[in-house]
């Protein structure tokens, strides 16, 4: 038995199904993505979720490098907290001017207070707010 030519199979399915990088509704009305991945019935695996996370995190790091070049000089905890918040989008994070200024100055207490006193702190889980603020306050 010869092995399946998976590259040919992918080309064939892409030719009829398409390859979409954003969610769409297939002909059966199911929310799908990619090359016919039915998100409603199949979802994604934990490995796929972690792969997507790594890609998103790498994009965030590049965006932080462009917008907040000093961020890499922060402690590991503060860098992780900043990346955590940046999952809301780096453009939105850039609106946290007082918090970013406090982090740049090494003032984790003020950075945490600014994060707590924001719309973001009401939009996410309270545990996430506390984790990020605790990381900001670490030396």
Outline the secondary-structure elements:
Blueprint: H1 6-17, E1 20-25, E2 31-34, E3 37-38, H2 46-67, H3 76-86, H4 90-93, H5 97-104, H6 108-116, H7 119-123, H8 126-137
Antiparallel strand pairs: 1-2, 2-3
Helix pairs in contact: 3-8, 5-6, 6-8
Brief overview:
The protein is mainly α and 139 residues long. Helix content is 60%, strand content 9%.
Walk me through this protein's architecture.
This protein is mainly alpha-helical. The protein folds into two domains: 6-38, no CATH class; 46-137, Lysozyme. The chain is 60% helix and 9% strand. It is built from eight helices and three strands; from the N terminus they run αβββααααααα. The chain has helices spanning 6-17, 46-67, 76-86, 90-93, 97-104, 108-116, 119-123, 126-137, and strands spanning 20-25, 31-34, 37-38. It has a three-stranded antiparallel sheet, with no helix packed on it. Helix 3 (76-86) runs antiparallel to helix 8 (126-137) and helix 6 (108-116) runs antiparallel to helix 8 (126-137). The termini are far apart.
Descriptive terms for the model:
Lysozyme; 2 domains; 3-stranded antiparallel β-sheet; 3 strands
Question: Which segments are poorly predicted (pLDDT under 50) over 5 or more consecutive residues?
Answer: none
**String of helices and strands:** HEEEHHHHHHH
Spatial gap, N to C terminus: 61 Å
Number of separate domains? 2
């Amino acid at each position: 038995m010869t092995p399946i030519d998976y590259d040919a199979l992918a080309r064939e399915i892409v030719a009829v199904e398409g390859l979409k990088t954003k969610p769409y509704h297939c002909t059966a009305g199911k929310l799908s993505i990619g090359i016919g991945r039915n998100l409603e019935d199949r979802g994604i695996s934990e490995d796929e979720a972690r792969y997507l996370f790594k890609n998103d995190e790498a994009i965030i790091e590049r965006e932080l490098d462009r917008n907040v070049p000093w961020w890499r000089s922060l402690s590991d905890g503060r860098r992780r907290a900043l990346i955590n918040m940046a999952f809301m989008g780096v453009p939105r994070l850039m609106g946290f001017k007082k918090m970013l200024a406090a982090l740049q100055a090494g003032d984790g207490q003020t950075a945490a207070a600014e994060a707590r006193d924001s719309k973001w702190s009401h939009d996410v889980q309270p545990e996430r707010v506390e984790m990020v603020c605790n990381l900001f306050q670490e030396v």
